[in-house]
Structure formats: structure tokens, C-alpha cells
Design goal:
The protein is of the alpha/beta class. The protein has six helices and eleven strands. 31% of the residues lie in helices and 26% in strands. A six-stranded parallel sheet has the order 2-1-3-4-5-11, with helices on both faces. The longest helix has 16 residues. The protein is globular, with a radius of gyration of 19 Å. The structure holds 1,4-dihydronicotinamide adenine dinucleotide (NAI) and the ligand O=C(O)C1=N[C@H](C(=O)O)C[C@H](O)C1. Its EC number is 1.17.1.8.
């Protein structure tokens, strides 16, 4: 039986995770904590894997505390930068289980989004232009989405590897309409009542366009990925920090 604790358990995602863990074979819910609760209650004596879905401003602190307590963590919260990831690696090295500790972070647990991200990285080297539009519910606190940042980084890496230069753009005046430039890729964020989580990756060459689109219509779409990640982290996932559900899929 994999004992799973949830941090951020009262949130939109955390409450779905509690339900998914309760319904998953071979898993049992250990602790369900939210803001104001003491994370020190989570220890290897009561928990095998923690699932963390909170807010970008507190997630790093939570992960560092959980690593110091020696429990493995699956993180869905966004807001991760290279600097924050480096802090997690250092914490693992300095923690109680440097050789066996596992931390897994996924910008997106939905198979549609993971595949869109993967296909975008594959397509990137064939196109002169690339831009991303991410569309979310208006209660989201961060923009652009963690998924869009990850997609942009994948496209940028593929363009660099192929020797492509900057995307063409002769804009001279921009009050913000061209979006945020992430790793050289323009990212546009829409916040609209009625939406959940959506992303479009647009590629262009002279006379042609490719659009890759992923839609998560409800939060249930993230749960198979969360449960898979918990099983992998409790099982044969490598020790250390792993980023991206693609690592657990046969892509
Ligand atoms: N990786 C993925 O597939 C997905 C990631 N997300 C990300 O997950 C995060 C959470 O999203 P939502 O659930 O929609 O947000 P939410 O605002 O509904 O939930 C956040 C929860 O965290 C709690 N919280 C705040 N500070 C805390 C602390 N210090 N300790 C424990 N709990 C604390 C809040 O009280 C709240 O219940 C966001 O970063 C979002 O972008 C959302 C959907 C899918
Ligand atoms: O806040 C959300 O809702 C989502 N956040 C993640 C992100 O920022 O990429 C994943 C998904 O898009 C839903």
C-alpha cells in the first residue's frame, strides 16, 4: 500500500488529488494538509509520497521542508525556475537520503498537454516562426502558465540544436501586445471565465502553418498523470530531481 499525503488538499487540484488517491488501487490517503497546517506532521513513518499542489510563492519552501524530513515528493505547483530547481538539488544532496530521495515536478499532468509539449519540441526545427497562446480560468494566479514556459523552453532548445536564429519579428512599438518573451518565444496568456487549461502552439513558414492544441476541460484530466507519478516515485523512478511526466511515458 502506498501511503500518500496531500499538501494543498483544500485547493482546486489538491481536493481532486485526495479523491483520486482514495479511489486508486494500492494507495491510501495519509494526511491532507493545507495552509496553516504544520508540514512537520508528514514523516517517513506515516507517508511514502507527498503530492504538493499549492501556490508558486510557497511551493519551494514546502518541497525543501519535505526533503529535509526525508519524504519523497510529487509536485504539480508551477513557478519553477532553474534557480529554484538548483535549490532542490542542493537540498537533496544535503538531506537525510541523498542517494535515494526522489522529487518529481510536472508542469502538467494531462496526457494531452504532455504530448502537445513533446510534439512541439519535435516540430520546432522545421519552422521559421513559433508562438504560444495559453488560455486558462481567471482564478489562476500565475502567467504565463508553467506549461507554456516549459513548452517555450523545449522549442527554444530544439531551435538552438538545429542552428535556427531568432524568430522573425519587425515589431517596433509594443505596449505588451506581443506577449512575454520566454527563451526567445513569444507567449500570450488569456484568462477567461468558462475556460480551464488550454494551450496552442503555432508554427509558421512562408505559406503554411501548423497548430498543436491541447485542452483540459476539467481537473479530472490531470489525475491519471498524478497517480502514475505517485506509483513511479514509490517504485522505479530514478533518485534525485526529475522534471516532466514525459520521463514516465514511452514517448
Ligand atoms: N501540474 C499540473 O498538471 C497542474 C498544475 N496546477 C498548478 O497547481 C497549483 C495549484 O493550483 P490550484 O489547485 O488551482 O490552486 P488553489 O488556489 O485552488 O489551491 C492552492 C491550495 O494551496 C493552499 N496553500 C496555500 N499556501 C499553502 C501552504 N503554505 N501550505 C499548504 N497549503 C497551502 C491553499 O490554501 C489552497 O487550498 C498552481 O500552481 C497551478 O498552476 C494546476 C493544475 C494542473
Ligand atoms: O493553474 C492551472 O489551472 C494550471 N496550471 C498549470 C500551468 O500553469 O501550466 C497546468 C495547467 O495548465 C493548469
Amino acid at each position: 500500500m502506498i501511503r500518500v499525503s496531500v499538501v494543498g488538499a483544500k485547493g482546486r487540484m489538491g481536493s481532486h488529488v485526495v479523491e483520486a488517491v482514495n479511489g486508486a488501487d494500492g494507495m491510501q490517503l495519509a494526511l491532507a494538509l493545507d495552509a496553516g497546517d504544520d508540514l512537520a506532521a508528514i514523516t517517513p513513518d506515516n507517508t511514502d509520497v507527498v503530492v504538493e499542489f499549492t501556490v508558486p510563492s510557497v511551493s519551494l519552501k514546502n518541497v525543501l521542508a519535505l526533503v529535509a524530513q526525508g519524504v519523497d515528493v510529487v509536485v504539480g505547483t508551477t513557478g519553477w525556475t532553474e534557480e529554484k530547481l538548483a535549490e532542490v538539488r542542493e537540498a537533496i544532496a544535503a538531506g537525510p537520503r541523498p542517494d535515494t530521495q526522489k522529487v518529481f515536478i510536472a508542469p502538467n499532468f494531462a496526457i494531452s498537454a504532455v504530448l502537445a509539449d513533446h510534439f512541439a519540441a519535435q516540430a520546432a526545427k522545421y519552422f521559421e516562426s513559433a508562438e504560444i497562446i495559453e488560455l486558462h480560468h481567471p482564478n489562476k494566479v500565475d502567467a504565463p502558465s508553467g506549461t507554456a514556459i516549459h513548452t517555450a523552453a523545449g522549442i527554444a532548445a530544439a531551435r538552438r540544436a538545429a542552428g535556427l536564429g531568432p524568430v522573425p519579428d519587425t515589431t517596433e512599438t509594443d505596449g505588451g501586445s506581443r506577449g512575454q518573451v520566454v527563451d526567445g518565444i513569444h507567449v500570450h496568456a488569456v484568462r477567461l471565465r468558462g475556460l480551464n487549461a488550454h494551450e496552442e502552439v503555432l508554427f509558421g513558414n512562408a505559406g503554411e502553418q501548423l497548430v498543436i492544441r491541447a485542452d483540459s476541460f476539467d481537473r479530472g484530466s490531470f489525475m491519471p498523470g498524478v497517480i502514475l507519478a505517485v506509483r513511479k516515485v514509490a517504485g522505479d523512478a530514478p533518485a534525485g530531481l526529475t522534471v516532466g511526466l514525459d520521463n514516465f511515458l514511452d514517448l
